[in-house]
Amino acid sequence: MSYSKIVISIVHSRFFPLYLLILTSLLMSFDRPAFAGEITGFVATESRIFPRSPLAPVQKGTGVSLALQPEYYHDWANGTQSVLFVPFLRYDQHDGKRTHFDIRELYWQWVGSTWELRVGLRRVFWGVTESVHLVDIINQTDLVEDIDGEHKLGQPMVSFSWIRNWGVINFFVLPGFRTQTFPGVDGRLRFPVTVDNSQVQYESDAGEKHIDWAVRYSHTLGNFDLGIAHFSGTDREPRLLPGRDENNNEVLTPVYNLIDQTSLDLQYTIGGWLWKLEAISRKTRKQRMTAFAAGFEYTFANIRNSAIDLGVIAEYLFDDRDPNNFYPTAFEDDIFLGTRLGFNDVQSTELLFGAIIDRKNRSSFLNLEASRRVGSAFKATLEIRGFVNLDNSDFLYAFRRDTYIRVELRRYF
């Protein structure tokens, strides 16, 4: 039996919560000085509460899940070489597709005086805006974790960074493509018709073995932080075409095109102002599309000597893609308004509230995120995501009954 099948059989076992508890206990009982490296990480319990009944009777409502993410780090040769291993495991009470295992990071790093070489699975983040991350294209989105697009699968790569006083150039060779994760039949926050990843299609004859590449230049020029990048390879966003499964049930078939994408991310800092821009131009065989997000965040620091910082955020989102040739987007002509509170207390209490509003039909996506440390080892998080006044032509209309509350408690070790 292959390694992946063994992992899947363990994850889907009815005894999996017990396995997870035992593994966590073992990790937390290690005598760290006996190890060459350092082991850290977290274990978390999560509950998602859906106040409204689902569109499909087979979908489940409120449920709980457990997650484990240990991290192992070891360096040698005076810190010039190191390895990092970050596996991730989640067990979900209802959705078998959300119960999954991934290696977020597993790579070797060699650092020189003007260069850095990394080989293995990594997560790389690009971008500056709050509402969307248009330029962030290296890693595949782990959509079953959250719909915010910030959770990513580990991407196999060889990356080389050349560091000079005039900027940093990063080169990426990306062998091995990873398909986007989607909720299962029982899961919430899914389309009325489920996505069948077993029928995945690729424009490239090499399929998932196509070798992608990317290059990025970044530099700080006074108050400006600049990033210019180009990616060539398999699109991380699939087109979803109607199809049938082996039982003749209606499904959506993911199709991944080959693209070339050039991007720009720019941030200008002056006083309490952050001015931000992300822009992309993406080309397939059939057409070219452009998209950008631009706006600002202004922070009122230490309000009335309370140590509280209040940030006000506004961004405009534009996307001209043709939904017939590209994966449809919910943010073609939208405004994001938000506020951020940082209490700067010992418990690191933070709160972010925002709303993305369609300028044409006023369809809105609301988001509240709050977090606070509890003691020295715990962190509590509250999220509320709401879908309000959705027009039936809106891409988010499929989630109109999926407003939910998420509560998570993490224990760090």
Question: What can you tell me about this protein's structure?
Answer:
Helix content is 5%, strand content 51%. The protein has 2 helices and 21 strands. The chain has helices spanning 3-11, 16-28; strands spanning 38-49, 63-76, 81-92, 100-111, 115-122, 155-164, 167-175, 201-202, 211-221, 224-234, 239-244, 250-256, 258-270, 273-283, 288-300, 309-319, 333-342, 350-358, 364-374, 378-388, 404-412. The strands form 2 sheets. It has an 18-stranded antiparallel barrel. It has a 3-stranded mixed sheet with strand order 8-12-11, with no helix packed on it. Strand 11 (239-244) and strand 12 form a beta hairpin. It is globular, with a radius of gyration of 22 Å. The chain starts with a helix and ends with a strand.
List the helices and strands and how they pair.
Elements lengths: L2 H9 L4 H13 L9 E12 L13 E14 L4 E12 L7 E12 L3 E8 L32 E10 L2 E9 L25 E2 L8 E11 L2 E11 L4 E6 L5 E7 L1 E13 L2 E11 L4 E13 L8 E11 L13 E10 L7 E9 L5 E11 L3 E11 L15 E9 L1
Parallel strand pairs: 8-12
Antiparallel strand pairs: 1-2, 1-21, 2-3, 3-4, 4-5, 5-6, 6-7, 7-9, 9-10, 10-13, 11-12, 13-14, 14-15, 15-16, 16-17, 17-18, 18-19, 19-20, 20-21
